[in-house]
Design brief:
Elements (H helix, E strand, L loop, with lengths): L15 H8 L4 E2 L1 E7 L2 E7 L2 E6 L2 E8 L5 H7 L1 E6 L5 H9 L11 E3 L11 E3 L4 E13 L2 E13 L7 E3 L2 E3 L7
Antiparallel strand pairs: 1-11, 2-3, 2-6, 4-5, 5-10, 6-9, 7-8, 9-10, 11-12
């Protein structure tokens, strides 16, 4: 180290805009979360998704508590997660901009047939690159969001990955660097 001091942190309590601008530059895979509860289907676009553990296979999803799907996800306790391929950017934009009651009228949605399983009846998207069927094991409120920890109860889809990515307000794809 050349003796230069580390910069002082500039984020002050309540300064969410500085954090938001920084985080816009972090790319994420675009997913759709869908559930069905009491005869109603719900879906939302989500990029705040990460793996948690391989044993048991699990993931976490952060959902804003003001999202129309928030409460129903907790009530149902299960959801499907669609990993979108790079060709699905128009579908993602359409679903993200649609009113909550119309989101599942876009795309080829089906109903999972798994009698006796917690994931029975979950909506799944035909156009998705892959689908994960999840059961919520834990839920924690933090700030404006709920953090859901979900166990993977089933997987279907392609082995080849070419996911749709979202970064700095735009959709794109991963391209490996030469060398």
């Amino acid at each position: 180290m050349s003796g230069d001091a580390l910069p002082r942190p500039v984020l002050r309590p309540g300064d969410a805009e500085t954090f938001r601008q920084l985080w816009r530059g972090i790319g994420s895979t675009v997913t759709l979360i869908a559930t069905e509860h009491e005869g109603e289907r719900h879906a939302m676009v989500a990029t705040a998704v990460n793996s948690v553990s391989m044993d048991p296979p699990s993931l976490l999803v952060c959902v804003n508590r003001s999202a129309s799907s928030h409460d129903v996800l907790g009530e149902r306790g299960a959801f499907s997660l669609q990993i979108l391929g790079r060709e699905a950017h128009e579908l993602a934009t359409t679903i993200a901009g649609a009113p909550a009651h119309a989101r599942l009228s876009h795309g080829g949605w089906h109903r999972l047939d798994a009698p006796g399983e917690a994931i029975d009846g979950l909506p799944w998207l035909e156009e998705a690159q892959a689908r994960l069927f999840c059961v919520i094991d834990a839920r924690m409120a933090y700030g404006t969001h709920s953090v859901l920890i979900a166990r993977i109860a089933g997987v279907s889809g392609a082995e080849a990955a070419d996911p749709l990515l979202y970064c700095d307000g735009s959709y794109g794809r991963f391209e490996a660097l030469a060398g």
